[in-house]
Amino acid sequence: xxxxxxKLLFYLAHSPxxxxxxxxxxxxxxxxxxxxxxxxxMDDASTEELSCKEDNDCTLxxxxxxxxxxxxxxxxxxxxxxKKNLFNAYRYFFTYLLPHSAPPALRxxxxxxxxxxxxxxxxxxxxLKAFEKVLHLYKSGLYLQKRPLxxxxxxxxxxxxxxxxxDYKCWPSYSHVGCLxxxxxxxxxxxxxxxxxxxxxxxxxxxxxxTGRPLAAFQSSWTDLIPDTNAVVYIKRSASSxxxx
Length: 245
Description:
The strands form four sheets. Strands 7-11-9-10-8 form a five-stranded antiparallel β-sheet. The chain has a two-stranded antiparallel ribbon with strand order 1-4. A two-stranded antiparallel ribbon has the order 2-3. It contains six helices and eleven strands. The protein starts with a helix and ends in a 5-residue tail after the last helix. The chain has helices at 2-13, 80-97, 107-118, 124-140, 186-195, 237-240; strands at 21-22, 30-33, 36-39, 45-46, 59-61, 66-68, 154-162, 179-182, 201-208, 214-219, 225-236. It has two domains: 1-143, no CATH class; 151-241, Hepatocyte Growth Factor (3-Layer(bba) Sandwich), CATH 3.50.4.10. The longest helix has 18 residues, at 80-97. Residues 1-18 form the signal peptide.
């Protein structure tokens, strides 16, 4: 959602009509269409930038913060439309969505984006570049470098999967009845399972997220197995010790 919003604001900042500001910037003005964020109401959009004679005429005011801007040689407050959109994106979207569901290794760069947009140290170009860098790390799995290899602690059973049903819950799960998380690889899934005291097994499903990452279902047992030619179930060696597989 945040990346899609930034792409939209990038377009508005560089539109053929000039820099466009959304004067009534509220979450209710946006809708998701085929995975992309769209603005539904352009009645309150404007290409007008505040006129000025000196820098003191160019203060961008919000309820909790104010930002001094420059008065350009053409007598316009420099970048005011772009900055107004970006700070509204920060206060209505970024603060609620960015900090909470990223893998731990990606939280520092997302925190940098949050702080930089909250202080308007980034413009829209820098913000989009920073988001795309995080997306590359996320999709490529580069954020997983220098981690201990944990998959060796698991037994893999090809041609089986565990019976679906209500199980322990985790955050941020794609399922409200269990623990279904996005992963880059089986190795990352093993690390997640190790970090959860309830987890005894996991299966990598055929479902994929918008970034192409598969979803893995983490479960507290592994004893209810059913045949599935397309599946592989991974079971903790410690959980399977003393049991017949």
